[in-house]
Structure formats: structure tokens, C-alpha cells
Amino acid sequence: MSWNTFECQNPDLCVKSAVDGTIYPASRAALMTSDVFKDMFACCDVGPSDPKGEDALELQETGGELAALLRLLHDPPPPPEQIPTDDLFQKIRYNLATVIPLPLLVSLLFRLVDKYAIAEAVAANLRVHLRANAPAYPLEVYGFATLHEMDWEASEASQFVRPMASYRLDDIAVLPSVISYHKLVKLQHFRVKALQDLLLAEEIFPHGYGACTTHNESTTTSWDRQRKALMGRIDSATDVAGEMSALTETFVACKSCYKACTAAVEMLAYKCKRLPRRLDQVSNLW
Asked: What's the superkingdom here (predicted)?
């Protein structure tokens, strides 16, 4: 969909850009989905406009902005297309080809929806598009959502934010307040500590179960050495199970040790995925 062009199939008035003079035919019924236009029509007699736009309704928007506004009113964007996923911990994914680009959302579309009080259903769909942008632009989505009090969208984006120390100062500037920054730091600190605790608690032969009588001591020592080496490198985004899985191949010569290591890594992966990842899951931290 092109947002800088617009055509109306059954126009009964014209809308004109007071900035550059661009004129678009439009439908009064479509404009009535905006509270601003509804009130305008209620108090003013806006009759049919001639094709040249002599009696057109003038708005302080550029031609491109006006086209986007009229598209929102006449042909509101549906939510992005969902695609199937087998990940039990990330139940929703989106077809990126159907997602409205983030710059267009944050610089124009949300502003128009707010300025012209467009129907909540349109705003709700735009918020879904905002969430769909979070995996690729987590900090930007989090900052925008926080600034505009979109708590659910901010929380959704928080799970994709990289470790804060990895961002440059210019990147962090998109955050609207110290509090919004602090919440991310607290979330990530919680995850690091929780990941470390899980790793230290996971044994390769839990309570002696599946222990290899031949390699019990050496296998346990290797597991312990690997996790202690990993401890100091864990950050909020570390795939702890993935890092520990590298040890599995060292046990291929022993069926019992290989099976035990595989099971321990899989259990670790399951437990790590269950850890809180979003702000709404750790709201008791502040």
C-alpha cells in the first residue's frame, strides 16, 4: 500500500492541502469516522465541492500527509498477517511484508490518528503494527510506546531489547525518561541473575539419575567447568542452553554421558524460556 497517494471511488466532497494545494476527492461518510470531522460537519454546512476544489475543505497538512489521513479514514489498514509458529513461548509472529514500517507509524500515522480523533479500531490496528516492529526495532518501539503510555506495547518490546550496555548513547536517546531506562536495566539485571541461578542449579546427573558408572566424575567435572566459565559471560540475552550444548559433542563416545548431557541441556533450555522476559512480568521490581 502506498501512503502518499489516494483515490476515492465515490467522492462527494474535496479536501485540500493548505500547505501545497494538493486536492483529493473524498467521502463525507468516511470522514465521519473522525470525531474532529464529525463535529465540524455538525456545526458547519460543508456541502459538495466542485472538482477544482474551489469549495474544498482545507487542512494544514502536506499533500502526502493528507493522502495518508484519507487512507486511514477510507481504507483503514488491517492488522499485519500472523504466521504459524511452533514456539510455545512466542505464540505470535507476523508476515513482515504486511507490517507498516516503523518510521511511517511513529512519525505520521499515530500523529494523524491522535490529531483527528480517528476511531479507536484504527488506532488498535496501528498498535498491532507497532508491536510487530518490536523484534527488529525494540528500543525504538519501547521508547515510543512508553512516551505515549502504550504500556502493553512497551512491555512487548522490552523482551527484544539487547543488553543496555551494547547500545550507544545516541541509541539510548530514544528513551523518553530515566524511569524508562531504569526499568529496562532492572529487567535485564533480573534476567542475568535468574539465568545464573538456573545454570548453577542444573546438574548433569541430578540426584545421581542416569549417572555413568565409568565417567561419572570426569563428566560432572566437565559440566561444572563449562558452566563456571559461562557464568561470567551471561547477559540478559545469552542463550545459556545453547552455550552449554557445545559440551554435548565431547560425550559422543559414551551413550550414557551423551544422553545425560542432552537431557540436562534440554531441561535448561525449557527453564530458561520460562523466565520473565517482559516488563509486565516483573512489575514487582519497582
From this structure: Eukaryota
Per-residue DSSP letter, 273:
H
Phi, psi of 15 (to 5 degrees): -120, 135
CA distances (Å), origin 204, targets 21, 60, 193? 73, 67, 21
DSSP notation for 122-137: HHHHHHHHHHHTTTTS
Q: Give strand pairing partners of 13.
A: 26
pLDDT tens sequence across 112-160: 999 999 999 999 999 999 999 999 999 999 999 999 999 999 999 999 9
**Per-residue pLDDT tens for 41-87?**
887 765 555 555 557 899 999 999 999 999 999 999 999 999 988 77
pTM beyond 0.85, yes or no: yes
The answer to whether 113 and 72 have CB atoms below 8 angstroms apart is yes
- H and E: helices and strands count for the chain: 13, 5
Q: How far is CA 175 from CA 141, 147, 159, 181, in A?
A: 10, 8, 15, 7
At residue 23, φ and ψ (nearest 5 deg) are -120, 135
Phi-psi region of 136 (alpha: psi -120 to 50; beta: other; left: phi over 0): alpha
- d(CA 108, CA 272) in angstroms, rounded, equals 39
- Cα separations (Å) of 36 from 7, 31, 146? 22, 9, 26
